[in-house]
Amino acid sequence: MIRLGVNIDHVATVRQAREIDIPDPLEAALLAEQGGADGITVHLREDRRHIQERDVERLRGAIKTKLNLEMAATPEMVSLAEKLRPDDACFVPERRAELTTEGGLDVRSQQKKIRDAVERLQARGIRVSLFIDPDRDQIAASRETGAHSVEIHTGKYANAKGDRMRERDAVAAAATFARELGFEVHAGHGLNLDNVTPVARIPEIVELNIGHSIVARAIMVGMERAVREMKELMRQARGVW
Ligand code: PXP
Protein backbone atom coordinates (compact mmCIF):
# COMPACT_ATOMS: atom_id res chain seq x y z
CA MET A 1 0.00 0.00 0.00
CA ILE A 2 1.24 3.44 -0.84
CA ARG A 3 -0.70 6.55 0.12
CA LEU A 4 -1.08 9.75 -1.88
CA GLY A 5 -1.15 13.06 -0.03
CA VAL A 6 -2.39 15.80 -2.35
CA ASN A 7 -0.89 19.22 -1.70
CA ILE A 8 -3.45 21.92 -2.56
CA ASP A 9 -1.36 25.04 -1.83
CA HIS A 10 -1.57 26.17 -5.45
CA VAL A 11 -5.35 26.38 -5.26
CA ALA A 12 -4.90 28.96 -2.51
CA THR A 13 -2.23 30.71 -4.60
CA VAL A 14 -4.77 31.31 -7.36
CA ARG A 15 -7.32 32.57 -4.82
CA GLN A 16 -4.80 34.93 -3.22
CA ALA A 17 -4.04 36.44 -6.64
CA ARG A 18 -7.46 38.16 -6.34
CA GLU A 19 -7.83 38.12 -2.57
CA ILE A 20 -11.36 36.77 -2.87
CA ASP A 21 -12.87 33.42 -1.94
CA ILE A 22 -12.46 31.34 -5.11
CA PRO A 23 -11.08 28.86 -5.93
CA ASP A 24 -11.71 27.29 -2.53
CA PRO A 25 -8.99 24.91 -1.28
CA LEU A 26 -11.60 23.01 0.72
CA GLU A 27 -13.63 22.28 -2.40
CA ALA A 28 -10.42 21.11 -4.09
CA ALA A 29 -9.62 18.89 -1.11
CA LEU A 30 -13.03 17.22 -1.18
CA LEU A 31 -12.70 16.57 -4.92
CA ALA A 32 -9.19 15.20 -4.37
CA GLU A 33 -10.64 12.80 -1.80
CA GLN A 34 -13.26 11.70 -4.31
CA GLY A 35 -10.43 10.99 -6.74
CA GLY A 36 -8.74 8.73 -4.20
CA ALA A 37 -6.44 11.00 -2.18
CA ASP A 38 -5.42 9.39 1.08
CA GLY A 39 -4.62 12.69 2.69
CA ILE A 40 -4.58 16.44 2.13
CA THR A 41 -1.38 18.40 2.58
CA VAL A 42 -1.04 22.15 3.02
CA HIS A 43 1.92 24.35 3.82
CA LEU A 44 1.07 27.18 6.19
CA ARG A 45 3.96 29.49 5.40
CA GLU A 46 5.14 32.15 7.79
CA ASP A 47 4.49 34.73 5.06
CA ARG A 48 0.95 33.32 4.49
CA ARG A 49 1.58 33.46 0.77
CA HIS A 50 -1.13 30.95 -0.05
CA ILE A 51 -2.76 28.85 2.68
CA GLN A 52 -4.26 30.82 5.59
CA GLU A 53 -5.02 29.67 9.14
CA ARG A 54 -8.72 29.72 8.33
CA ASP A 55 -8.12 27.23 5.49
CA VAL A 56 -6.48 24.80 7.90
CA GLU A 57 -9.37 25.13 10.36
CA ARG A 58 -11.95 24.51 7.64
CA LEU A 59 -10.05 21.55 6.20
CA ARG A 60 -9.63 20.09 9.67
CA GLY A 61 -13.35 20.05 10.19
CA ALA A 62 -14.41 18.79 6.78
CA ILE A 63 -12.02 16.33 5.19
CA LYS A 64 -12.52 12.61 5.73
CA THR A 65 -8.92 11.54 5.20
CA LYS A 66 -5.98 12.95 7.14
CA LEU A 67 -4.59 16.46 7.24
CA ASN A 68 -0.85 16.95 6.93
CA LEU A 69 0.42 20.42 7.85
CA GLU A 70 3.78 21.45 6.42
CA MET A 71 5.42 24.12 8.53
CA ALA A 72 8.62 25.69 9.75
CA ALA A 73 9.85 24.30 13.08
CA THR A 74 9.61 27.67 14.84
CA PRO A 75 8.04 28.18 18.29
CA GLU A 76 5.28 30.39 16.77
CA MET A 77 4.34 27.81 14.16
CA VAL A 78 4.46 25.00 16.70
CA SER A 79 2.03 26.93 18.93
CA LEU A 80 -0.27 27.39 15.96
CA ALA A 81 -0.10 23.69 15.07
CA GLU A 82 -0.95 22.80 18.68
CA LYS A 83 -4.08 24.86 18.22
CA LEU A 84 -4.94 23.67 14.69
CA ARG A 85 -4.39 19.98 15.53
CA PRO A 86 -3.59 18.42 12.14
CA ASP A 87 -3.19 14.63 12.09
CA ASP A 88 0.37 14.96 10.83
CA ALA A 89 2.92 17.76 10.64
CA CYS A 90 5.95 17.93 8.38
CA PHE A 91 8.78 20.29 9.29
CA VAL A 92 10.25 22.02 6.25
CA PRO A 93 12.90 24.70 5.84
CA GLU A 94 11.55 28.10 4.80
CA ARG A 95 13.21 30.97 3.03
CA ARG A 96 11.17 34.03 2.24
CA ALA A 97 12.22 34.50 -1.37
CA GLU A 98 11.96 30.87 -2.45
CA LEU A 99 9.42 29.77 -5.06
CA THR A 100 8.96 26.44 -3.30
CA THR A 101 10.71 24.43 -0.59
CA GLU A 102 14.17 24.29 -2.08
CA GLY A 103 16.08 21.73 -0.09
CA GLY A 104 15.70 19.45 2.89
CA LEU A 105 15.99 20.49 6.52
CA ASP A 106 19.45 20.67 8.02
CA VAL A 107 18.52 18.57 11.04
CA ARG A 108 22.09 18.07 12.18
CA SER A 109 22.74 21.78 12.82
CA GLN A 110 19.47 22.42 14.70
CA GLN A 111 18.84 19.12 16.39
CA LYS A 112 17.78 20.51 19.75
CA LYS A 113 15.35 23.03 18.29
CA ILE A 114 13.79 20.34 16.12
CA ARG A 115 13.66 17.81 18.94
CA ASP A 116 11.81 20.33 21.14
CA ALA A 117 9.32 21.07 18.37
CA VAL A 118 8.80 17.34 17.67
CA GLU A 119 8.20 16.66 21.37
CA ARG A 120 5.63 19.43 21.68
CA LEU A 121 3.58 18.22 18.73
CA GLN A 122 3.89 14.51 19.39
CA ALA A 123 2.71 15.17 22.97
CA ARG A 124 -0.53 16.37 21.36
CA GLY A 125 -0.87 13.22 19.27
CA ILE A 126 0.37 14.87 16.06
CA ARG A 127 2.77 12.60 14.12
CA VAL A 128 5.79 14.55 12.96
CA SER A 129 7.77 14.04 9.80
CA LEU A 130 11.03 15.78 8.79
CA PHE A 131 11.58 16.80 5.18
CA ILE A 132 15.18 15.91 4.42
CA ASP A 133 17.47 15.28 1.49
CA PRO A 134 18.40 11.64 0.75
CA ASP A 135 21.44 11.92 3.00
CA ARG A 136 22.51 9.33 5.59
CA ASP A 137 23.83 11.90 8.01
CA GLN A 138 20.56 13.86 8.02
CA ILE A 139 18.61 10.64 8.50
CA ALA A 140 20.82 9.63 11.41
CA ALA A 141 20.44 13.13 12.92
CA SER A 142 16.66 12.86 12.49
CA ARG A 143 16.58 9.81 14.68
CA GLU A 144 17.77 11.85 17.67
CA THR A 145 14.74 14.14 17.34
CA GLY A 146 12.18 11.41 18.01
CA ALA A 147 10.25 12.16 14.80
CA HIS A 148 7.85 9.50 13.61
CA SER A 149 8.68 9.77 9.90
CA VAL A 150 11.02 11.30 7.37
CA GLU A 151 9.94 12.65 3.99
CA ILE A 152 12.71 12.24 1.47
CA HIS A 153 13.15 15.18 -0.89
CA THR A 154 12.85 13.88 -4.47
CA GLY A 155 13.61 17.24 -6.13
CA LYS A 156 17.09 16.25 -7.26
CA TYR A 157 15.71 13.08 -8.83
CA ALA A 158 12.84 14.96 -10.50
CA ASN A 159 15.11 17.70 -11.87
CA ALA A 160 18.03 15.46 -12.89
CA LYS A 161 19.19 16.22 -16.41
CA GLY A 162 21.67 13.37 -16.61
CA ASP A 163 21.60 10.12 -14.71
CA ARG A 164 18.15 10.22 -13.14
CA MET A 165 18.29 6.60 -12.00
CA ARG A 166 21.37 7.39 -9.93
CA GLU A 167 19.30 9.98 -8.07
CA ARG A 168 16.47 7.48 -7.76
CA ASP A 169 18.89 4.97 -6.24
CA ALA A 170 19.98 7.63 -3.74
CA VAL A 171 16.33 8.04 -2.72
CA ALA A 172 15.96 4.25 -2.46
CA ALA A 173 19.11 3.88 -0.33
CA ALA A 174 17.93 6.68 1.95
CA ALA A 175 14.52 5.01 2.26
CA THR A 176 16.13 1.69 3.23
CA PHE A 177 18.36 3.34 5.83
CA ALA A 178 15.49 5.40 7.28
CA ARG A 179 13.32 2.30 7.57
CA GLU A 180 16.15 0.43 9.30
CA LEU A 181 16.26 3.23 11.87
CA GLY A 182 12.54 2.76 12.47
CA PHE A 183 11.09 5.70 10.54
CA GLU A 184 7.95 5.59 8.50
CA VAL A 185 9.20 6.77 5.09
CA HIS A 186 7.51 9.34 2.87
CA ALA A 187 8.79 11.12 -0.23
CA GLY A 188 7.89 14.06 -2.39
CA HIS A 189 8.73 17.12 -4.46
CA GLY A 190 8.67 17.48 -8.21
CA LEU A 191 6.85 14.19 -8.81
CA ASN A 192 4.55 13.93 -11.82
CA LEU A 193 2.91 11.35 -14.08
CA ASP A 194 6.16 10.87 -16.02
CA ASN A 195 8.54 10.33 -13.13
CA VAL A 196 6.49 8.94 -10.24
CA THR A 197 6.75 5.23 -11.05
CA PRO A 198 10.40 4.54 -10.11
CA VAL A 199 9.86 6.28 -6.76
CA ALA A 200 6.53 4.59 -6.08
CA ARG A 201 8.28 1.24 -6.62
CA ILE A 202 10.58 1.76 -3.64
CA PRO A 203 9.03 -0.65 -1.13
CA GLU A 204 9.94 1.25 2.05
CA ILE A 205 8.06 4.36 0.90
CA VAL A 206 4.49 4.35 2.18
CA GLU A 207 3.42 7.90 1.29
CA LEU A 208 4.03 10.38 -1.51
CA ASN A 209 3.11 14.05 -1.24
CA ILE A 210 2.42 15.63 -4.60
CA GLY A 211 1.20 19.14 -5.35
CA HIS A 212 2.28 21.08 -8.40
CA SER A 213 1.78 18.45 -11.09
CA ILE A 214 -1.63 17.41 -9.76
CA VAL A 215 -2.98 20.96 -9.51
CA ALA A 216 -1.53 21.75 -12.94
CA ARG A 217 -3.27 18.72 -14.42
CA ALA A 218 -6.46 19.54 -12.49
CA ILE A 219 -6.68 22.85 -14.36
CA MET A 220 -7.01 20.83 -17.57
CA VAL A 221 -9.04 17.80 -16.54
CA GLY A 222 -10.46 18.55 -13.09
CA MET A 223 -9.14 17.66 -9.64
CA GLU A 224 -10.91 14.35 -9.26
CA ARG A 225 -9.52 12.95 -12.49
CA ALA A 226 -6.04 14.38 -11.92
CA VAL A 227 -5.84 12.62 -8.57
CA ARG A 228 -7.31 9.38 -9.95
CA GLU A 229 -4.67 9.27 -12.71
CA MET A 230 -1.83 9.70 -10.22
CA LYS A 231 -3.25 7.16 -7.81
CA GLU A 232 -3.67 4.63 -10.60
CA LEU A 233 -0.03 4.96 -11.64
CA MET A 234 1.10 4.56 -8.04
CA ARG A 235 -1.00 1.41 -7.70
CA GLN A 236 0.42 -0.03 -10.89
CA ALA A 237 3.96 0.74 -9.73
CA ARG A 238 3.34 -1.37 -6.62
CA GLY A 239 1.75 -4.13 -8.63
CA VAL A 240 -1.61 -3.55 -6.93
CA TRP A 241 -4.53 -3.22 -9.28
N1 PXP B 1 6.63 17.63 0.17
C1 PXP B 1 7.05 18.79 0.76
C2 PXP B 1 7.62 18.72 2.13
C3 PXP B 1 6.91 20.03 0.09
O1 PXP B 1 7.32 21.15 0.69
C4 PXP B 1 6.32 20.04 -1.18
C5 PXP B 1 6.13 21.35 -1.89
O2 PXP B 1 5.26 22.15 -1.18
C6 PXP B 1 5.89 18.83 -1.74
C7 PXP B 1 6.07 17.64 -1.05
C8 PXP B 1 5.20 18.75 -3.06
O3 PXP B 1 6.04 19.17 -4.09
P1 PXP B 1 5.43 19.42 -5.53
O4 PXP B 1 4.50 20.60 -5.40
O5 PXP B 1 6.61 19.70 -6.37
O6 PXP B 1 4.69 18.17 -5.92
Question: Order of SSEs, N→C?
Answer: EHHEHEHEHEHEHHEHEHH
By helix and strand content, what is the structural category? alpha/beta
* The CATH homology group name: Aldolase class I
| Rg (CA only) | 17 Å
- Estimate the mean pLDDT confidence: 95
Would you state the CATH class?
A: Alpha Beta
**CATH topology, anyone?**
TIM Barrel
- Overall form: globular
Which hetero ligands occur in this complex?
pyridoxine-5'-phosphate
What is the β-strand count? 8
Our count of helices gives: 11
The main β sheet shows up as: 8 strands, parallel, barrel
Task: Estimate the helix proportion, in percent.
Answer: 40-55%
Strand content bin: 15-25%
Name of the CATH architecture? Alpha-Beta Barrel
Q: Flag low-confidence runs.
A: none
Sequence of strands across the biggest β-sheet: 1-2-3-4-5-6-7-8
Number of domains: 1
N-C termini distance: 11 Å
